[in-house]
């Protein structure tokens, strides 16, 4: 067999590794070139806005846009809400915020104006989606109160928005399907009283004709104090359930729900509920002890029952039978 040694061959594995190294080096070189082309010159770094330079370029900086300034949430946990704040409900009836704190059920509060082009609808939709998978029902175990931050909204727009949300929620039929859903409108002064109590900072953008505001919902205790803030445009059903349990202050919850609430706590960094390993271990230890105790009791009971039903178990209490004597046969 003739072997051609003039052209040494490289194994496929080596070729693959070499090719990968070459591609990484080429990629790194491309990044360096791109960074050099995109980097601003020294004068632009010293004078980023080009002040004093004719036709100077103004690069974009990572600063908060003017329309988002003073838009924030400052938490006021355990703070009370103004129960005497006056509003009008979707039926045109004058109400006060305190009318929705009955001392028995928690309340989910959300701020949303009815002509909001995007964020308000995202928050309401996320709330509705999350509540659909919560065992508790609106109007039975808790209420939902939506306060419009736009004084121009009215009962007609509140009714339209409420019906849209209730239809997406999909529970209940007939006139009672809107029970527990309260969409309120009011004047600037009363709106600000409630938003200030929550710590909800928003502002009106004259240029865009819209309100700039944060995205969050708020869980209130039956007495009308702030129990929890949940942020974003997606709310997990587990977070909603645990938040409502926490806000309910232990009222009307089952033993299983109490254990669930005991095993979770709210993580302020992650803005959601997290499981507490030590508490789970304690609950697991207690359950294990009960199971072992139940098993021992069951085995002991079975042993006692078998001992009582075994044949001849009462032989010591019965008198022995005397042997019969027979007379010998006469021969």
Q: What's this model, at a glance?
A:
This protein has helices spanning 12-38, 42-46, 119-132, 155-169, 188-198, 237-247, 255-263, 277-309; strands spanning 72-73, 86-88, 94-96, 107-111, 143-147, 181-184, 200-201, 203-205, 210-212, 216-220, 226-231, 264-267, 272-275. By secondary structure, it is an alpha+beta fold.
SSE layout and pairings?
Blueprint: H1 12-38, H2 42-46, E1 72-73, E2 86-88, E3 94-96, E4 107-111, H3 119-132, E5 143-147, H4 155-169, E6 181-184, H5 188-198, E7 200-201, E8 203-205, E9 210-212, E10 216-220, E11 226-231, H6 237-247, H7 255-263, E12 264-267, E13 272-275, H8 277-309
Parallel strand pairs: 4-5, 5-6
Antiparallel strand pairs: 1-7, 2-3, 4-10, 8-9, 10-11, 12-13
Question: Please, could you describe this protein's structure?
Answer:
Helix 3 (119-132) packs parallel to helix 4 and helix 3 crosses helix 6. Helices cover 38% and strands 15% of the residues. Among the domains are: 68-249, Glutaredoxin (3-Layer(aba) Sandwich); 254-300, no CATH class. With 331 residues, it is an alpha+beta fold. It has 8 helices and 13 strands. The protein is elongated, with a radius of gyration of 37 Å.
């Amino acid at each position: 067999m003739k072997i051609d040694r003039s052209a040494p061959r490289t194994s496929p594995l080596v070729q693959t590794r070499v090719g990968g190294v070459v591609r990484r080096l080429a990629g790194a070189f491309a990044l360096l070139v791109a960074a050099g082309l995109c980097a601003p010159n020294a004068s632009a770094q010293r004078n980023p806005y080009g002040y004093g330079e004719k036709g100077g370029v103004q690069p974009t900086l990572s600063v908060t846009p003017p329309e988002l300034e003073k838009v924030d949430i400052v938490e006021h946990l355990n703070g009370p809400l103004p129960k005497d704040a006056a509003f009008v409900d979707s039926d045109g009836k004058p109400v006060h915020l305190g009318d929705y704190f009955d001392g028995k059920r928690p309340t989910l509060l959300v701020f949303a104006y009815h002509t909001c082009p995007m964020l308000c609808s995202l928050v309401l939709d996320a709330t509705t989606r999350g509540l659909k998978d919560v065992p508790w029902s609106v109007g039975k175990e808790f209420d939902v109160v939506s306060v419009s931050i736009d004084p121009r909204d009215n009962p007609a727009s509140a009714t339209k928005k409420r019906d849209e949300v209730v239809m997406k929620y999909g529970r209940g039929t007939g006139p009672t399907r809107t029970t527990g859903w309260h969409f309120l409108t009011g004047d600037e002064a009363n709106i600000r009283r409630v938003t200030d109590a929550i710590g909800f900072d928003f502002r009106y953008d004259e240029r865009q004709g819209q309100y700039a505001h944060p995205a969050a919902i708020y869980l209130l205790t039956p007495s009308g104090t702030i129990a929890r803030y949940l942020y974003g445009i997606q709310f997990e059903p587990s977070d909603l359930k645990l938040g409502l349990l926490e806000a309910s202050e232990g009222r009307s919850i089952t033993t299983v729900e109490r254990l669930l609430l005991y095993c979770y706590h709210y993580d302020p960094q992650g803005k959601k509920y997290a499981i507490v390993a030590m508490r789970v271990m304690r609950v697991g230890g207690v359950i294990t002890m009960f199971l072992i105790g139940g098993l021992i009791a069951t085995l002991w009971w079975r042993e006692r029952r078998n001992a009582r039903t075994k044949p001849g178990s009462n032989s010591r209490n019965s008198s022995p039978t005397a042997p019969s004597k027979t007379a010998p046969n006469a021969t």
